[in-house]
């Protein structure tokens, strides 16, 4: 779970999270299916082939090592560029969020006859994402072109070197031919694995994003840790200061003092934006005070178990969503 401040961030809206998880989870499969097996197989075959080439004709083997080093430098450069573009596409992806928010509020949009406006916004954001996809496709095409042509380049160099080695009688013809064929097998293994390389970069990016969400520690702490005590109902705000994390320059509470005794009914009255909903959110520990103390039965709310605290609270919002049935049945659904 995450605290409310996490979802206040425009980068973590519900629409964006739904879009990212729906996209990233399938992208991670490349690291676990046959594509990963093909890359492992190709890497093993390439290393073994270079070792054979070194054993039979060391000049050609050294040439193979040099080619592999050049290939790795070039491939790592392309991987870094593709990774950067993947991260940028995730951060700047507004099209998915816009689509989900439009679908969720389609009736309101239709009543206000704003369909064309929202379509134009979605189209504009989609075109921006398309431009980034084209840039990523360019680097993926470079990777494909390089790996497909590298085999013929290495063939040419290896045969030229092999002829020279035989001419100066450094190695016999059969040993030279075996080494050249070993390099040919290494190149073929590389060609087989090359199409899957962009998929592995995409899987790495997706896994990083998914685990960044799953492993993030909420600012309210571990929900299972803390004191589990029976709540009586006395609440006190003692010099509470609070600012929303997304608006640190705009204070919402400045030294609030408020005591509420158990069994009493309290009404919070004030204009919009005066902090009424914020006070309720702090009571449920969606947010913690920036300064001061919120105490429940004389205990600091931050010392209480978050899960246990919320099981002893009930909240009916301004726009409650109910299932078909009685209010009692809906309350039972919530408790279940």
UniProtKB/TrEMBL annotation:
<dbReference type="InterPro" id="IPR011527">
    <property type="entry name" value="ABC1_TM_dom"/>
</dbReference>
<feature type="transmembrane region" description="Helical">
    <location>
        <begin position="62"/>
        <end position="83"/>
    </location>
</feature>
<dbReference type="GO" id="GO:0016020">
    <property type="term" value="C:membrane"/>
</dbReference>
<keyword id="KW-0472">Membrane</keyword>
<feature type="domain" description="ABC transmembrane type-1">
    <location>
        <begin position="1"/>
        <end position="202"/>
    </location>
</feature>
<keyword id="KW-0812">Transmembrane</keyword>
<feature type="transmembrane region" description="Helical">
    <location>
        <begin position="176"/>
        <end position="197"/>
    </location>
</feature>
<dbReference type="InterPro" id="IPR036640">
    <property type="entry name" value="ABC1_TM_sf"/>
</dbReference>
<dbReference type="GO" id="GO:0016887">
    <property type="term" value="F:ATP hydrolysis activity"/>
</dbReference>
<keyword id="KW-1133">Transmembrane helix</keyword>
<dbReference type="InterPro" id="IPR039421">
    <property type="entry name" value="Type_1_exporter"/>
</dbReference>
<dbReference type="GO" id="GO:0005524">
    <property type="term" value="F:ATP binding"/>
</dbReference>
<dbReference type="Pfam" id="PF00664">
    <property type="entry name" value="ABC_membrane"/>
</dbReference>
<feature type="transmembrane region" description="Helical">
    <location>
        <begin position="38"/>
        <end position="56"/>
    </location>
</feature>
<protein>
    <recommendedName>
        <fullName>ABC transmembrane type-1 domain-containing protein</fullName>
    </recommendedName>
</protein>
<dbReference type="InterPro" id="IPR027417">
    <property type="entry name" value="P-loop_NTPase"/>
</dbReference>
<dbReference type="Pfam" id="PF00005">
    <property type="entry name" value="ABC_tran"/>
</dbReference>
<dbReference type="GO" id="GO:0140359">
    <property type="term" value="F:ABC-type transporter activity"/>
</dbReference>
<feature type="transmembrane region" description="Helical">
    <location>
        <begin position="152"/>
        <end position="170"/>
    </location>
</feature>
<dbReference type="InterPro" id="IPR003439">
    <property type="entry name" value="ABC_transporter-like_ATP-bd"/>
</dbReference>
